[in-house]
Amino acid sequence: AQKVTQAQTEISVVEKEDVTLDCVYETRDTTYYLFWYKQPPSGELVFLIRRNSFDEQNEISGRYSWNFQKSTSSFNFTITASQVVDSAVYFCALGRNNAGNMLTFGGGTRLMVKP
Amino acid sequence: GAVVSQHPSRVICKSGTSVKIECRSLDFQATTMFWYRQFPKQSLMLMATSNEGSKATYEQGVEKDKFLINHASLTLSTLTVTSAHPEDSSFYICSARDRAREQYFGPGTRLTVT
Question: Is the pLDDT of residue A98 over 70?
């Protein structure tokens, strides 16, 4: 069975603080994909990153960075120098075998960045 | 980039009526589309997998007679909520898979049943 846990339901930070959103997953598959999506109040999912199970390299994209640790089944997301526009719900998701399969989503973390 | 649209973006209907939601892949062919449901302040849950030209596969607990899915072409899948009730009020999101097995999400449809 697939499972994604985002233990932090809500996080509140002040602008310019760094913040890390945790994601822990469970799967029996040897090949899988991990995703992060941002959902602003409009509701539309904004794709942030995809990582396959064979690629444990960490990734940095501007103020965003991701830490994939297969040994602890975690795929954490860090926002550096947070901004008010980062306020949204962030979802971590797990896909089986290939990137086009249906996704199992975590419960989401609501991030509030205050000015 | 690949674009998936949903229509309508918002719909309000009366209890007992049926509502149809369309999911279209605008610039690619999608043999598979997925339908998710998101209740307020909750996560997305897969409702069904829609394959072009065949019957949809529903997740456990999703009533196939209530949520009718039709994937009649490679660019269109529809979800019809039949005899809608207030508890069906939710945000419905579709995603479409292209031939490269990449997945793209639609913008969602907010359904309110009064």
Answer: no
